[in-house]
């Protein structure tokens, strides 16, 4: 009975991933059509930051086989997407040229986080001789 339940959950999760993948592909096609000016197609709003935030949220929600409570890759996508939203929409009156060092700072935070994460520390010790 347990095996049937997990299989049904897996099928449901795969359907959700397929739907999400199709949505991402559609957004990508719209972005490509905008950049290549196909048939006069123009997007008036920058979508790439929203796409990164959505991908990050999906990644954070997917714990994967490791069973972690947080997914750093998802958080990284969300951080870059949030930076993109602030700069694209000039929410704080800032631009790319002034705020790109924030990405370097955020990258450093993630490097330190990975170094002090107990899951990574245990994995590193088990692989040592």
Largest sheet: none
**Outline:** flat
Structural class: mainly alpha
Q: How much strand content do the residues show? A: under 5%
Number of domains: 2
Computed Rg? 19 Å
Number of strands: 0
Helical fraction equals over 70%
State the separation between the terminal residues, measured CA to CA. 42 Å
Question: In terms of per-residue confidence, which ranges show pLDDT below 50 for 5 or more consecutive residues?
Answer: none
- Count of helices? 6
Order of helices and strands: HHHHHH
Mean of all residue-level pLDDT scores = 79
Question: Mind sketching the topology for me?
Answer:
Layout: H1 2-36, H2 48-61, H3 72-88, H4 96-99, H5 101-116, H6 118-126
Helix pairs in contact: 2-3, 3-5
Produce a short descriptive summary.
By secondary structure, the protein is mainly α. The protein has six helices and no strands.
Report on this structure:
The protein has 129 residues and is mainly alpha-helical. The chain has two domains: 1-44, no CATH class; 47-129, no CATH class. The chain has six helices and no strands. The protein has helices at 2-36, 48-61, 72-88, 96-99, 101-116, 118-126. Helix 2 packs antiparallel against helix 3 and helix 3 (72-88) runs antiparallel to helix 5. The termini are far apart.
Which features does this protein show?
129 residues; mainly alpha; 2 domains; 6 helices; 74% helix; 0% strand
